[in-house]
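Dear support,

I submitted the protein below through the web form. The confirmation email said the job was done, but the results page showed an empty box. After a refresh the structure appeared. I'm attaching both so you can tell me whether what I see now is the final result or a partial one.
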Amino acid sequence: MFSQTYITNVTIADVEKQRWIPNQTVIIKDDRIVNIQKSSKIKIPESAIVINGTDKYVLPGLTDAHIHFFQSGGLYTRPDVIDLQKDMPYQKEIDYSHETMEEVLQRYLQNGITNVIDVGTTINFLKQRELFKNNDDVPSIYMTGPLLTTYEPSVYKNLKDDEPFNLVKTVEDGINIVQEQLQYQPDFIKIWYIVGADGLEKEASARKNLPIVKAIIDEAHKNNLKVAVHATQRITAQLAVENGCDFLVHSVDDEILKADFVQLMKKNKTILCPTLIVHGGYVNIFGQTINPSDHELLKADPHQLGSLLDLKHLPDSLLINNYKKMANSKEGVARLSKADSISMANLKILSDSGVLIATGTDAGNIGTLHASSYLAELQTMKKSGMSNWKILQASTINGAKILDKENEFGTVGIGKKANLIILDDNPIEAIENITKIHRVINKGVVFNPDELIKDTPADLAQRQLNAYNFRNIDAFLEPYAEDVEVYNYPDKLLFKGKEAMRKNYSQIFENTPNLHCELLGRIVQGNIVIDQERVQFRDKIVEAVAIYHVENGKIKKVYFIN
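What the results page shows now:
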């Protein structure tokens, strides 16, 4: 049993009524909120854990309603989109995603996300989630099974329990596969409603596959499971909703929605997860125009973020140049711009009409990194015209409603789960304040977000390398100690201290637009990281070795061997 925790003198977000309630004390016992009163009326026992909430804001824990654990967010995670298996075998990518699942979950919690919904996973991940059921330092995990689809990319076939798709050719297949997934206790069923792969135009293709889609939905509902549907065309979305879909997991991006569709969504109480940033993520990576924020450089998996720049040096220049040309072509830019503008316009239409919106990133896709991409999704929702209060609703209570768990979490209330975030600044004034997290409370346990993930020496080396490649001086200096020492090997001191480092590298970043460092090899020995590097520096290529000495969680010394 836990001691009682008191959050005193705090301002509570009432996300349902869109208001702040000041000067409150929230009392937590075990994993529940047991009382909320004005702070002046509360007497705190000596044995209590006390969090001073003065000038702070408490919100329900956030929900990311659309992620994929089987995808890492890095460059090699979708071989059906870009096949780089000669550089990175897909099995290595699968293994990496399993090995880092706990860290991925902790990154979500670090970002205040206490619930994640995986809408398309594998049997092996359904099994693996059982390992985390009783962990306080990870979010609650909700999952579908593999995506049921009438089209399966060939690269995913024959992967057995690592296969993210179940191919459905007939109505009977659909019914049988739903029944087969039941043994793994999925939280709901997911349909990948893809049109055109059969050579038909989109409406004919959608209607051809509709009997299968309807059979899957009906069978899932018979077994008390909701159904999520990937449907990005108006026709597939409409047919899915007409036939009982509970959760549309993408925006319609091919036409502006009309009143009849909006009324259909409202009548059927279908929830929409817009996933606004994922398409642009792919285009920015392939076009080599990625420019991550300071938040991403600090909070993302540094190794997967680093992989997104590999297109600058991988050997298959013909393949890579074709992708770059496609992404940056006049047609490619116009296509993305049109799809994005339609998606955002449709989000505003549906939100203004009272359709429930749930925040989700589609994290795991190339360029949409787990946990750290959440802020960019919120910012894009804001750009669509949603108010900050509606964005908070989409990120809290509406996520709970997807699962019919609004009585358990999603608001700050007596009897609710103690899944909370305490912020230093008001997110209604600026949605970016959602990242200024003082504490995360998950299942009643209080966490300092800065202590949830312990950076390894390799993490620090990779973070500064990422920022170097993006020529971001503040993010570059972040992993270094204030009194860092930089040497030419073995003992020639070049400069000491962050300010000297800032002056030196700022000039390099400002004057070298084509700067790019390729990591050729890395050796980690205890607190020492040895990187073999190839650097594109103006009109020449330089090879060097960098030796990083880490002390007390920061890079204290660097030695360069040229």
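Response: this is the final, complete result; the empty box was a page-load delay. The chain is about 35% helix and 25% strand.
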